[in-house]
Amino acid sequence: VFDGHGGCDAAAFVRKNILTFIVEDAEFPTCINEAIKNAFLKADNVLANTRSLDNTSGTTALTALAFG
């Protein structure tokens, strides 16, 4: 669940990209916690450096990853 504030750009961007960022991280799947942390840091960096997105928007995130 991504709850945007100051606009919807950040929430939409993270919703669209976070899973890709997780599974493409070098730590995935051996160290899931690190891969998730790295993915959110990458999303933050990309958002900060993408001029086409509203840089006043942000998002909170509630995520779960289930294996089985």
From TrEMBL:
<dbReference type="Pfam" id="PF00481">
    <property type="entry name" value="PP2C"/>
</dbReference>
<protein>
    <recommendedName>
        <fullName>PPM-type phosphatase domain-containing protein</fullName>
    </recommendedName>
</protein>
<dbReference type="InterPro" id="IPR036457">
    <property type="entry name" value="PPM-type-like_dom_sf"/>
</dbReference>
<feature type="domain" description="PPM-type phosphatase">
    <location>
        <begin position="1"/>
        <end position="68"/>
    </location>
</feature>
<dbReference type="InterPro" id="IPR001932">
    <property type="entry name" value="PPM-type_phosphatase-like_dom"/>
</dbReference>
